[in-house]
Amino acid sequence: GKALDITRIRQDFPILSETVNGKPLVYLDNGASAQKPTAVLDAMDHYFRTSHSNVHRGAHTLGDRATTLFEGARETVRSFLNARSTNEVIWTRGTTEAINVVANGLAETLSEGDEILVSRMEHHANIVPWQMIAERTGAVIRPIEITPAGEIDESSFDGRLASDRARILAITHVSNVLGTVVPLERLLTKARERGLYTVVDGAQAVPHYQPDVQALACDFYVFSGHKLFGPTGIGVLYGRETLMEAMPPLQGGGEMIERVSFEKTTWNTLPYKFEAGTPPVAEAVGLGAAIDYLGQFSRESLETAEQALLQRANELVETVPGLSVIGTATHKVPVMSFKMEGLHPSDIGTLLDQQGIAIRTGHHCAMPLMDYYGVPGTARASFAFYNTLDEVEQLFQALQKIQRLFAE
Ligand code: PMP
User: Fold this and answer.
1) Does ligand 1 have an atom closer than 6 angstroms to the CB of 95?
2) ω before 271 within 30° of 0 (cis)?
3) Which stretches make up the Aminotransferase class V domain (predicted)?
4) Could you tell me if residue 1 is inside a domain?
5) Which of 236, 260, 294 is the last residue of a domain?
C-alpha cells in the first residue's frame, strides 16, 4: 500500500494543533480515547443542523431523515465487521454496556458451578459484569493465566478449557495495558470445539484492525466508538442472531417492545429488542462517519505507520536509564506500558504533561494484571496512526530529562 501522508492526516484532527502548558500537544493517550477527525465533527454537526429528530417514529420528514442516517450508520458498522445482518448490530453506550448486555443475556444459560473463563489481562469491563452474573447464578470465574511477556499462557488456556464445566470464554482481542494482540483465531477455534459461548472485547483492537466476525466465528464482539476516532456515548454489540433472538434484554422501555399490556409485554425484533429508549442518534452517525473516514486508508498502510512508531519506541527504551517496559509480546499494537526506577507512574504523567505530552498512568482498569506484575500501576503511551516518529522521540527526550532530574 501507499505510505500515509501523516502531515496531511494530522490536519484532519483539529485538536492535534492545540498547545498544552505552552507546548505543542503530543497526544499519546489514544488507548484511553482517540481524537476525532473533522469528518466526524461535521457529520454530527450537520445531523443536528439539518436532520435531528427522534428515530423510528415515522410521522414526519425529519423523523425519516434521522432514521435513515441512524440506520445507515448501522449498515456501516455491519459492513465494517462483516456481520451477516444489521439484526446482529446493536447500539450500546460502549464496550462496558455491551458486555453487561451479553453477561445478562447469557445468565439464564448458567447453573451453579458452571465456569466463565476470563484472561488475567482483561479490562475490568470484561471481569466485573461476569462476576455479577456469577453471583446471581452460582457460576464461577476461572482466570486464564499469562506469561511474563504478557501473552496468553496457552497451557493455562487449554487447562481451563478442558473442564467439563467451562461455558463461556470472555477474552480481549488486544490488551489495553500491554498492547498484546491475542491469537484469537486459534483460541476461538478451540473454545468453539468445546461448545463455549465466545465473547470478544474488541475495544483496543478496532483502532488497529478490522475484525471479520464471520471469519473469527465468535458469538459476540464488542467495541466503543470513542476509541475508534468516533464520539463517546456510542458503542457496538455484535451478536450472533440465533443467540440474540434467545437472549433476554437488559433494559426495558420504549422502542424495544412489540406490544405492551399490563398482562403481558412482547419484545420487538432484532436489533431493537436491545435498544430501550431514545438512542444516541448523532453519536451513531458520528461513529459511522469515523468508520467511513478510516475506510479511505488501507489497513496495511495504517499498520505499517503504527508499527514504525512502536519500533522507534522500542529502540529508544535503552536511552532512558532505569526504564523498563511491561509487556514484551511478539505481536503488539503500538502501546507501551513502562515503569521507571525511583518514580511513581503518576509523577511521570504529571511531568510529561508539563511538557505537553499526554499519556495515561495508573492501573488502567486492569488490577489483576497489575497484581501479576507486582506494580501499583504503569505509565502507558498509546499511539495512533496520526502520531509521528518525531513525537515518539519527544516522548523519550522528555523521559530522559525526567530521569536526570527526578529519578534516583
Ligand atoms: N475493554 C478494554 C480492553 C478497554 O480498553 C476499555 C476502555 N479502556 C474498555 C473495555 C471499556 O470501554 P468503555 O469505557 O468505552 O466502555
Assistant:
1) yes
2) yes
3) 26-395
4) no
5) 294
* Protein residue with its CA nearest to atom 8 in ligand 1: 32
- CA separation for the pair 69, 42 (Å, rounded): 14
- Confidence band for 59, pLDDT divided at 50, 70 and 90: confident
Q: How far is the CA of 226 from the centre of ligand 1 (A)?
A: 10
Which tens digit of pLDDT belongs to each residue from 96-153? 999 999 999 999 999 999 999 999 999 999 999 999 999 999 999 999 999 999 999 9
Which residues share a beta bridge with 362? 378
- Strands of 235-239's sheet, edge to edge? 89-92, 235-239, 220-224, 197-201, 166-172, 115-119, 140-144
CA 329 to chain centre: 19
Q: Do 169 and 326 touch, CB atoms closer than 8 A? A: no
List the domain range (segments joined by +) for residue 20.
6-30+298-406
By CB atoms closer than 10 A (0-12, 13-18, 19+), residue 289 is buried
Burial class (CB in 10 A: 0-12, 13-18, 19+), 32: middle
On whether the CB atoms of residues 62 and 47 are closer than 8 A, the answer is no
Backbone angles phi, psi at 378, to 5 degrees: -135, 165
Cβ of 152 below 6 Å from ligand 1: no
List, for residues 153-184, the tens digit of each pLDDT value: 999 999 999 999 999 999 999 999 999 999 99
Residue written as grid cell 444489521 = 86
Are residues 89 and 110 both part of a single domain? Answer: yes
- Choose one of 91, 95, 184 to mutate for the ligand 1 pocket test, by most ligand atoms within 8 angstroms of C-beta: 95
Of 270, 294, 318, which residue constitutes the final position of a domain? 294
| 400: in domain | yes
pTM of the predicted model over 0.90: yes
Q: What is the whole-number distance in angstroms between the Cα of residue 318 and the centre of ligand 1?
A: 31
What's at 383, amino acid-wise?
F
What is the CATH number for 385? Answer: 3.90.1150.10
- Residue of 258, 255, 257, 223 whose CA lies nearest to 238: 223
User: Residue 53: pLDDT above 90?
Assistant: yes
ipTM more than 0.90? yes
